[in-house]
Task: structure prediction
Amino acid sequence: MSNTVGFVSLGCAKNRVDCEMMMSKVREGGFKLIEDAAMADVAVINTCGFIESAKQESINEILELSKLKEEGKIKKIVVTGCLAQRYNAQIKQLIPEADVVLGLGANGDICDAINKALFGEDIESFPDILNMPLDGKRVQSTQPHYAYLRVADGCDNCCTYCAIPLIRGKFRSRKMENILEEAQRLVNNGVKELNVIAQDTTRYGEDIYSELMLPTLLKELCKIEGLEWVRVLYCYPDRITDELIKVIKEEDKIVKYIDLPLQHCNGEVLKNMNRHGDKESLTALINKLRTEIPDITLRTTLIAGFPGETEEQFTELSQFVSDMKFERLGCFAYSLEEDTKAAVMECQVDEDVKQERARIINEQQAIIMSDNCERYIGKTLDVLVDGYDRYAECYFGRSVLDAPEVDPCVFFTISDRKPKAGDIVKVNITDYLDCDLVGEMEA
Ligand code: SF4
Result:
């Protein structure tokens, strides 16, 4: 009887796509995939190594499953993903319970590594990151009606606080024909919503086509029959071009939603982050997006407490958040990451000051978001049904305003017809709870 393999994937959606590709390799290799890694013969922890809290979460997950190995319930522990890539040989020293440690460049060899481990070998493999497969079959781990479509990996922006370029290497686009073929395959499997991702999605194509090709790619995606929604995540402000705005505006299938991490608004702080712009240029960009695409939903991410951030610069950021009223926003306290330029900068801000600043922004945003919900009362929204909530005794799903896993959702009651997960239904919004909209499905 073939051994069972269970995966845990941590971190971002790009890491999840890596995991789905490894799951496909493992299944093709004759192993039986099971949902719960704690019940498997071989547990694979696809780790995140981005910031301290994420690293700790990955280590805890490995140690949890290693306990089951000591109890003889799990045969082998396999560590993959960004923590393995970033700390490579140290992982085995730190966590001797790990039987296999694979860098990202070895994702394609996971089957061979598991087989060798089952024969008693300890495996550590950290080939060049450029060996990391970007194209290939996947076992979808999201709900059947939505999926992530990774169009590139790595990053050349080199923000001074960010370890991703150190982990995932330089920016590499996938060929458009491979992306479109994968998108078609996903839609054939029932996917209605594709979330287009990369570390910098807006840079798509620049390296292999010598020009920004995201607008062209999006238009091609919209030609796919059966695909209902296309959502663009991880955009970089400098590369929000007129052509991109035009395509998002004119293509019905592209939801009027942009995820645009800005990180800060103060020119000096942005410069120290090796990012560009200032409050005036970013305000102009936001106003332009809202003028060109009036019902657009803007999501952003901010960092509070970056080295050298003064009280005045933080006040400016807080004022920017009040003025811009982003529909979706997450603010994180700066996390010092070794080997990054910001880690050795002077004027590191005290931890409690960083946390307090992030708390202030997130509290501001909670009020902005619930006020924003008011706009939708009396309106009808298309909702992609995710399922039935037994606790709330009603259905739930996401509207075009809500990206998967990071945004609020819509709870709704029905009159007669029972919707299925994956259906797109019309919901009349009657109320909201915190930041979740509440409504009734049209008959
Ligand atoms: S653009 Fe994003 S992934 Fe790239 S270096 Fe900056 S923060 Fe990191």
About this structure: Residues 155, 157-159, 162, 164-165, 199-200, 236 surround iron/sulfur cluster (CB under 6 Å). The chain has a mean pLDDT of 97.
